[in-house]
Design goal:
four-stranded antiparallel beta sheet; binds zinc ion; globular; about 450 residues; 12 strands; about 35% helix
Length: about 450
């Protein structure tokens, strides 16, 4: 899950004028949304006035699959206002360590793994609710592809790409590419402010989980996005009231704190909010057990990648253009967990085959809705295929291009050199080959 911009917000931006907080309004409870801020008509004494705007950038909860020794639910968020992930039991994706990735022959230093901590690390003093400045949002029209899909010419030949013969080939290639990029980074201990719910402090596995988070942050932040200048916040919570309290203490308004500690999010194992560079690991209720049974670092690896994705939109208060497909956002984050933890990803095929029996059975990648549960199973496969085709750097460059103000449909060809339509065509072409038949 990730802090996202809702389509309704975008519509609202086009159609509504901004209201001024503190000025008169006519009906209590009425709302107005403008420029990413939602204003509510509230009663102050005997007067009705517009409230201070509240960011509509809300955590968008979706659960990430957690491979454990028990059957793993692949989270399938439903496209309702209250996302209710339906647990699809998947065959135990017991993480199979991938064959030792080939290190580069040059003496590249293995990144020093952050020292293991034996207690909860001290915080930096940065406030939890310190958010980024908002400026204007994107206004860009997707260009129409100049190249007509030349039906006679193979796209593989056109782009000088190798058509994969099976999924295994993609998996190996991407794991190697990822590991090579990761090797040789400067070792640096990532700056993380941990917020640990006091109720969880006695949990036996807490330090294991904290150390796993430090490690995945080190790999993802320092490898993928080295210019992060501020610490990120990582919140482990079990009690919603405590979650709300730390936001108020962290400088959030009362309204904002309640939005960020909204039980509506409880259907998710975790989420990230990019405007304050924070990620939240939900151990409330029965999920408390995940502290012991969840693969350490798995969920954090997913959420941290969302922060990396959305950090590109820091100048827009973390608000991306609304045109980024769900398969690219969630599929990318879902792929990151096994990659960072050095696990095999071939189980994704089986997971998606099961998912396809129930959700968006006939959908092509291009037509997959932004809320589809298959963004978490077909999505990572598509991201892996894309990385196989163009490599990690060009893959990440898509996010950078969007950070420059481009919509996805323009950023994609500019970063990868491949027309988006043609990428979709190649993916659909290889689907049967890699084991995802179009039903
Ligand atoms: Zn996510």
């Amino acid at each position: 899950m990730v802090a996202g911009i809702s389509l309704s917000l975008v519509t609202a931006q086009l159609s509504e004028a901004a209201v001024t907080p503190g000025t008169k309004c006519s009906k209590v409870g009425a709302t107005s949304t403008s420029k990413g801020l939602k204003y509510t008509c509230v009663k102050k004494g005997s007067k009705l006035i517009w409230s201070k705007g509240v960011s509509t950038v809300k955590p968008f909860p979706v659960t990430s699959p957690t491979p454990t020794s028990t059957p793993t639910p692949i989270a399938t968020p439903t496209p309702t206002p209250t996302p209710t992930p339906i647990a699809t039991p998947t065959p135990t994706p017991t993480p199979t360590p991938i064959a030792t990735p080939t290190p580069t022959p040059i003496a590249t230093p293995t990144p020093t793994v952050a020292p293991t901590v034996s207690q909860i690390p001290e915080r930096s003093g940065r406030k939890l609710c310190e958010t980024k400045q908002s400026t204007s949002l994107f206004q860009e029209t997707p260009r129409t592809s100049s190249s007509k899909n030349s039906s006679n010419v193979s796209l593989w030949a056109k782009y000088s790409l190798t058509r994969p013969n099976n999924f295994e080939q993609i998996v190996r290639s991407v794991q190697t590419d990822f590991t090579k990029s990761y090797l040789g980074i400067a070792s640096k201990v990532p700056a993380i402010d941990f917020y640990i719910d006091p109720e969880l402090k006695a949990e036996a596995n807490l330090l294991t989980q904290i150390n796993a988070v430090i490690k995945v942050v080190q790999i993802e932040y320092l490898f993928l996005e080295r210019q992060f200048d501020k610490p990120i916040s990582v919140v482990f919570f079990t009690d919603w009231d405590w979650l709300e309290k730390i936001h108020i203490e962290g400088g959030c308004s009362v309204v904002d704190a309640s939005v960020r500690a909204n039980k509506r999010l409880d259907t998710a194992a975790g989420w990230a909010t990019s405007d304050n560079s924070a990620l939240y690991l939900n151990f409330s209720g029965s999920k408390r057990n995940d502290l012991v049974t969840g693969t350490p670092g798995w969920l954090a690896a997913h959420e941290i990648f969302h922060l990396i994705q959305f950090n590109h939109f820091a100048q827009f208060a973390g608000r991306p253009p609304f045109s980024i497909p769900g398969w690219f956002i969630e599929g990318g984050a879902t792929l990151m967990s096994p990659l960072v933890l050095g696990m095999d990803t071939t189980w994704l095929i089986q997971a998606d085959n099961q998912s396809a029996q129930r959700i968006d059975t006939k959908s092509s990648l291009e037509d997959l809705s932004s809320n589809s549960g298959r963004n978490y199973s077909l999505g990572p496969i598509a991201n892996e295929f894309l990385i196989y085709l163009v490599g990690f750097n060009k893959y990440l460059a898509i996010w950078k291009e969007m950070g420059e103000g481009k919509v996805f449909a323009n950023a994609f060809p500019d970063a990868t050199g491949i027309e988006l339509k043609e990428f979709y065509a190649m993916f659909e072409e290889i689907r049967p080959t890699i084991g995802i038949p179009i039903l």
